[in-house]
Amino acid sequence: MSVEILLPAMSPTMTEGNIAKWTKREGEKVSPGDVIAEIETDKAIMELETDEDGVMGKILVDEGAEGIAVGTLIAVILEDGENASVLDGITASVVSVPSAPPLSISAEQSDTNVTAPVTVSAPEADFPEGTGFSNMTVREALRDAMAEEMRLDDSVFVMGEEVAEYQGAYKVTQGLLQEFGEERVIDTPITEHGFAGLGVGAAMANLRPVVEFMTFNFAMQAIDQIVNSAAKTNYMSGGQIRCPIVFRGPNGAAARVGAQHSQNYASWYAHIPGLIVIAPYSAADCKGLLKAAIKNPNPVIFLENEITYGYSFDVPDLDDYTVPIGKASIVRKGSDVTLVAYSIGVKFALDAAEKLASDGIDAEVIDLRTIRPLDMETIIESVKKTNRVVCVEEGWATCSVSSEISARLMEGAFDYLDAPVTRVTNEDVPMPYAANLEKLAVVNDERIVAAAKTVCYKEDK
Amino acid sequence: MTKKSVPRKTKSGKPAARRKAVKKNTPTATNDELMEYYKGMLLMRRFEEKAGQMYGMGLIGGFCHLYIGQEAVVTGIQATLKDGDSVLTSYRDHAHMLACKIDPKLILAELTGRATGISKGKGGSMHMFSVEHGFYGGHGIVGAQVPIGAGLAFAHKYRKNDNVSVTYFGDGAVNQGQVYESFNMAKLWNLPVIFVIENNQYAMGTSIARSSSEVELFRRGESFKIKGESVDGMDVFAVREAAERAVAKCRAGDGPALLEMKTYRYRGHSMSDPAKYRSKEEVSKMRAEFDPIDQVKKRILDANILSEDDLKVIDKDIKALVSEAADFAQNSAEPHPSELYTDVLVAE
Ligand SMILES: Cc1ncc(C[n+]2csc(CCOP(=O)(O)OP(=O)(O)O)c2C)c(N)n1
Ligand SMILES: [Mg+2]
């Protein structure tokens, strides 16, 4: 029996790929484990192996072809001795995978596609006239920030699991080893508590470590060193011992990686005096704030988001571009309701604002960018205008950043509020694995729209 | 590697009639054992190949870590266990579940996130459990299963039964501090835990030489007075023999034990690993010369237990079993939305 080779998904986020190379030609023998092609994915060039014993019967997509959808029939392997006539008439086509059979009840599901890259132009206002912009991904912006700071200050070094030779598990440290060498770009063993503590020690000795956690889920192994050593020593030493360290890595839900790998730690760290907590969204902010974080003399928790790594934005071509820590940014001006968000929540809020606009509600969107210290001034100024706030957070509601904002609005802007401050967050459950449940668990733009309408006292018709 | 099939006489006698031992320089095995391990390992391999294909089709999401190449480790060890023993491992857990005799349907249904999955679709590839089969996960955090495994052993000792806990972890996990905290307590309290280091030589893209000051991992227990043993983890009989000693010691109240299994994974760390950190030749050499399934297959053929044709029939049957499991998974519905809120706390 011949075996159809479909272009496989080779990462949790891959939707299409390029055929970089066929390593087996038609008529050539193949055995289990043989590489038959090299496929370029969104992150890397991957080898496509076969499990089959047989002969490469027909190649249906040419070498060099780009943007081939996952699931496309790209080749057929024949069993040894099988007649090649079975190949007649076969062409490249997308073979659809049957979706799960429907539930007996209709599961209400929103179709928020969180993986589609978006391009956002920078708001003009903030930059000197004539500033040029380069379009780049969040991943590239973060890498550039580290590279620039490493060039400027030789006490800056990068340390973490797979940051050097592997070029980063999510390719954020791509090229750093090549430029700065193994003394400054250091692969660690899997020993988070150990290397976080080591980083703290190095920082106390006035080096400037940038410690990458492969994801912040794994920083829980290290949280004692972050909280008890990094955050408190300056205070306990009466200001003698500084800890200029950046802990960075992806935070929050990725895609289908389940309960132990999908958590938002923003409010955990925001709880701790002695830490600075940053969680930007756009590539420009990622670059400018990571540079500011590395220059800062305090321990900084820098929360990235895996899903946004591939998003592209305009980044200003300015020398040594930094963004001030502790300053929120108004990413959309509006007058009816204020949506306060951070990290990927900003995308949900912007999407919601678009939808609200078509319903005649003019939403203002604030990107917090820094979580600790919180820029309440910017929020309150906005509330004075809109009198309504919806907090958006890809994380749990209880004791969240949104809860904190809500409390501070009660204290500082009670008289300006015309409706209760509302939190739109993930569901209060560990992250489920099943695709349908995961969608239900994570915050989305539809829920923000509904909440905004409620605080504007506008019902859906 | 393709052998011409030589017709041989197929025996279909019952166990007692076939206790003829096959002698080699590796430990002895009965014909039944050879066949049992062969089938068990082949099921793991075909299952993982299917999981890989289903991941490629988008039916499995997130991370998916395959066990291909390492089959002899879990097969040899599980052969020495009995009812009531506890087992746990990392996220690379599919084969451990098969070795615990968990129905492949329930595993594939979990991998595809369906209501019929062993965790009702809520756990996924890395987080699967079956109390009924003594399987305590399926852990996504590197090294976290090690103290938990010591805790399961603590419970066995506390209850004064002679069961053991088998705690599997990787060559990367051995560098986590909690592993050594566990070693100390396990020895201090003589817990019946068998620490099994599955040394497949890589932790994601980091080779053991790049991550470890002491690469002889069986020695990692020495300062806790745990004597370790290094074992050829590609030879199911060598694994079983070492496991028998370790298990007997723990059952007799003389735990813990530490086994380092030298093994190899053929595939990338997970489905999204381009695996540029090792050469293609290194992988092909391991496959061609040390494959755990081929080793057993050779012994079956050399001892004339079954013919190449007979083995093809077995392979076909196993493939059919796996396909059936895949169909079951694909034809199962996703969890009911109300499941989102269940199992957060135990209802009273
Ligand atoms: C605490 C923690 N840190 C990092 C990771 C990411 N990670 C997952 S598997 C892995 C490599 C583990 O290698 P090893 O222990 O050798 O097991 P193997 O994958 O080879 O079976 C890493 C770094 C994680 N899951 N948990
Ligand atoms: Mg390993």
Based on CA atoms alone, the radius of gyration of chain B comes out at 20 Å
Under CATH at level 1, the class of chain B stands as Alpha Beta
Sheet bearing the most strands of chain A, described? 7 strands, mixed
End-to-end C-alpha gap of chain B:
60 Å
What is the count of DSSP helices of chain A, taking H or I runs of 4+ residues? 12
Which percent bin holds the helix content of chain B?
Answer: 25-40%
Average per-residue pLDDT of chain A, rounded, comes to: 92
What amount of the residues of chain B lies in strands? Answer: 5-15%
Bound molecules: thiamine diphosphate, magnesium ion
Distance between the termini of chain A: 57 Å
Strand content of chain A: 15-25%
Total number of beta strands of chain B:
10
Number of helical elements of chain B:
11
Helical content of chain A, roughly? 25-40%
Give structural notes:
- The complex is a heterodimer of chains A (461) and B (348).
- With 461 residues, chain A is α/β, with parallel strands linked by helices.
- Chain A is built from twelve helices and 23 strands.
- In chain A, α3 (192-204) runs parallel beside α4, α8 (345-358) crosses α12 and α9 (376-386) crosses α10 (401-413).
- Chain B has 348 residues and is α/β, with parallel strands linked by helices.
- Chain B has a single domain (31-334), classed as Thiamin diphosphate (ThDP)-binding fold, Pyr/PP domains (Rossmann fold).
- The longest helix of chain B has 26 residues, at 31-56.
- Chains A and B meet through β5, α3 and α11 of A and α1 and α9 of B.
- The structure holds thiamine diphosphate (TPP) and magnesium ion.
- Thiamine diphosphate (TPP) sits between chains B (90, 92, 140-142, 170-173, 200, 202-204, 269) and A (161, 190, 192, 214, 218, 221).
